[in-house]
Amino acid sequence: MEAPVPPAIHCAEVEPVSGAPATVAASVSGAATARGTAESNPMRWVALLTCLAAAVPKLIQVTQQPELLARPRHLLWIALLLAFVAMFWAPALRPSEDCRSVRTLSWLAFHSLLALALLYTVPNGLYGVFLVIAAASVGEILPLRAAFPWIGVQTVAALPRAAATER
User: What does the pLDDT profile of the chain (167 residues) look like in tens digits?
Assistant: First the structure.
């Protein structure tokens, strides 16, 4: 006789807190929830506007100094920014409902790597916001016991750049 298979952990399951429902809307990750689709979720708009606010100074600088586009790292940064926003926003690129799926974990890993790449490619103190957005996605998709170590590793990976930016 085979051992019973434990029920799958659903990404949005949490313990109810003070009367809250047992599921949490994946507001930053973009999963469709009882609150509506990702496009109608205010937190996704806030995250998108935050990305824009962090990117605008660099985009203005590049338009005012087109010679910067001759440097590969500035072109790379723009490509990374577009990929980060596209992954975050495009429905086809969002993770699935199952937090254990390879697709979901790959999405989270790639999104975190894009955030780190944005931080390392062109130094700027504002670009830590991309890590915050990636961490919010991790925190809403994975159970907390997996999200905290993930966010910790992501933060440690950003420390060398943060130290270099302060100098």
Answer: 554 433 444 454 443 334 333 333 344 444 444 334 445 567 778 888 998 899 999 999 999 999 988 999 999 999 999 999 888 777 556 666 677 788 888 888 999 999 999 999 987 878 889 999 998 888 878 888 999 999 999 989 988 876 665 55
Evaluated on CA atoms 68, 69, 73, 77, the torsion sign reads: positive
Entry pTM: 0.71
Residue that the structure tokens 């905290």 belong to = 148
Strand partners, 13: 23
CA distance 90 to 85: 8
Residues sharing a CB contact under 8 Å with residue 36, sequence separation 6 or more, in sequence order: none
The tokens for 50 are 């935050």
Please tell me the distance from the alpha carbon of residue 96 to that of residue 115, in angstroms, as a whole number: 20
Is the backbone of residue 40 left (phi > 0), alpha (psi -120 to 50) or beta?
alpha
Q: Is residue 136 helix, strand or coil? A: helix
Calpha distance 43→132 (Å, rounded): 13
* End-to-end Cα spacing for the chain: 64
